[in-house]
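To make this tangible, we now present a fold written out as tokens:
***
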Amino acid sequence: MVAVGNKYWKIRHTLAGESLMAIKPWYKIDGLTPREDLREGKPLDASEFAVHLDKVRDKTAPAYYQDPEQFFNRTYLTKYLTEFSAQVVRRLSGEKTETSAVFNLATQFGGGKTHALTLLYHLAKGGPTANNWTGVQKILQKAGISSVPEAAVAVFVGTEFDSLKGRGGDDGTSLRKTPWGEIAYQLGGEAALSVLAQHEAEFIEPKGDVIKQFLPKDKPCLILMDEIINYVSTYRPKGYHNSLYNFIQALSETARGLDNVVLVVSIPASEMEYTSADEGDEQRFKKMLDRVGKPIMMSAEAETSEIIRRRLFEWDAGAVSADGRILLPKDAIATCNEYADWVLDHRQQLPNWFPVDNPREAFYATYPFHPSVLSVFERKWQVLPRFQRTRGVLRLLALWVSNAYQQGYQGAHRDPLITLGTAPLDDPQFRAAVFEQLGENRLEGAVTTDICGKKESHAVRLDTEADNQIKKARLHRKVSTTIFFESNGGFQRTEATIPEIRLAVAEPSLDIGNVETVLETLAANCYYLSIEKNKYRFSLSPNLNKMLADRRASVQSSRITERVRAEIKKVFSSHPGIQLIEFPQNSSAIANRPSLTLAVLAPEHSMQDSQTLKMIESMTKECGTSDRTFKSAILWAVADTDAKLREEARKVLAWEDIRDEEQGLNDNQERQLKENLAKSISNLKENVWNAYKFVALLGKDNKIRVIDFGQVNSTQSTTLVGLIINRLRQSDDVVDTINPRLLVRNWPPAFIEWSTKAVRDAFFASPLFPRLLNGDAVKDAIARGVKDGTLAYVGKSSNGYEPFHYQCTFNAADVEISEDMFIITQETAEAYQKALAASVAVPQAWQVGAYTQANTNSGSTPITNTVGENPTSYVSNNINQLKDELEPTDEPETITPVPSPQLLRWSGAITPQKWMNFYTKVLTKFATNKNLKLALKVEFLVEGKITQQTVEETKVALAELGLNNDVETDIHEDP
């Protein structure tokens, strides 16, 4: 550990305002480099971290186990290992105080016991030579002796020794079939073995007196026995288990009576492999050894990180503290300080088990690993039945370091630390090692589906689709990997909390808020991630997302279309003054009438379809087979695209199918299902708002104009129809009221009188006029125009205008919208008044309603009309006054000439689409004239043959109408 006190190394720019320099990646920091084999990515076998004592003894173990100097260089002497080895060498030196002759070495499977036995083996074999090995002086100091004594050493490993075949006999040595015979041979050769000749032949364990005879007399003696339960289990049917028990008991008692003999026994095999008989023997041996000896529990706890550094990394031999810890390079310290500062800044958002008030020591202790990496094994994984504490962690981390180092130098990543989220779960070898420790290979599907290992893995895909910061940090993968490690260890806390996830994945340069963003995305996509009360875990059971994916694939297209249309109908609710037409398929579905109509196109006719605008134009200008009169009355609501709508509708239907058909959902899933369904329904509604962002209408140039409302959502208005109308109000495409002067400015030049019906119709027929939300706005405009003198409201009679309302208070409710009531301009109204004042009789021009502009040049004095008084009665009431004011004259009486009839004739071709319009707009104006004559010439040019039956049917139809049924054809009879 680096002793830095309150001062610590930081790398920062010196100029004010400049940001923190980039932290160096761990693999680029000199002074703590992965071992050569890890750097080169050589395959690592688990056996590297699980050496057998027999292989050390016969010199077939790997060099770093077989060579004592290498072994001690890679071994960190933990507190427990130092105390244990000090007691052993002290006893071998003949000291009996603060030590024991018998040790029962108990650790969890894979907990480092064989490593401890190997250390004792090298010490005893090395003797004084061992004094100069790394860390041995620390052992001697603890033992209170000056030198390691050389001792005779015997090794018995229960997994290796075979009592049926025996050892030796064919290699120039005597055959040994008993544990005691093998131990005696290793301690004293053939001479010692000869002492047990009869015991060996009859497989009977020796007792104390015989044991003393084969023990060496000239030097200390160390006997190491490992994995004895494995031997006991194998030979229990032959009764050898009792013989071994009796031998160890006798050997223990003998060692206790001697000054420099030490027996170290390690009992457990893997507890996962225990039978009930094994458990019974394990307890029997343990009780006996605890009674005659001293139990030793090997524990690394807080020193695991230092063990890992020694085993997996190369370091500067001179950079070691007084207690044997490797000193960190200054760049490594800088990295730790940056992370520690981040922890201090976010302490309220991190787990309470982490030392948030003093985080530097934690980062110093575990570098180049993040503290979460090692703590997850200590907090959770160590309670797993199959977890091998030291051996298992070393195996995983060796693969981890090797992968991370190569990935770093290949330019893929620049991680400052090896974090929990960077575990290479995409590497099949690493995954297999993880599943082995968890004891659960079925997690393969969960990992490769949701985290990594395949191109389509959810976290990998989500990272590629995320924004740049999340994508660069690989945050989806890091968060999901962290959840996997935190939630698949232990029995009580099989989940990852948000504070734990934040601590494990966040970096000084990362916005911590992105963690929650990523969690939401993972929750919506992963198939094996379950969430309950902000706690996350990966498991074997598929979650609702997986059920959703399966259900979505089976939802029929017709159901989706039906659901989308139903939701659109809900969103496009009624609105005053608007007639809604939903999903018209042809022009005849939209009535041709003077009222504002919003036609909602089906979403498949979207703006993305090149035919949509052509369809809108055709349906706007036509109504069935005729031209449409009120083209400007139609507004078109058009979707941008239907893709999102259909996708969200598919999701809603899938959730509903799960709700109605899925069995066996737990309470949490039921709650999540309810929430997800509600959210999807809400999203579908919102997608309708988002989609219908376009409105099409007839422009002033008589072409379809498209208005893009931009981003549309439900927060902008209470109803979508209301939002559309309000937007069109802002652009004056739709109005609520009319200024009377608008009518004057747009007065048809061919009209003296403009019928109120034609006025009203103009707002729905001509794109030059704004569209009226309320048809009564025409009445209101006329009434206001009458009051302020802009307009006059009149009827027509044979004697002039009757009624005639001008410059008077007039109620809008009294305005009649019809072809028989008219408005006239101020100039026309005043000219009419002047004419009335200057004439006794109403001029002929008023009688026929064909008053010309020339009359407006009269110089008569205006006469104010009386409200409700018609022109004829007005003249009658004032005739005497007019006579009194006129002087007699001798001029002859003027006789108004009777107009002679005039002829109107037209001929031309009319397409079938305009036949009805020709009748309503042209012929109806003259239909009441008794002199109207309509000459009709009809020609049919039919491709192919006209049958005689067709000719006869035509004649019958003409006769039924009372018409001449002479029909000419060019049909020629076949000869």
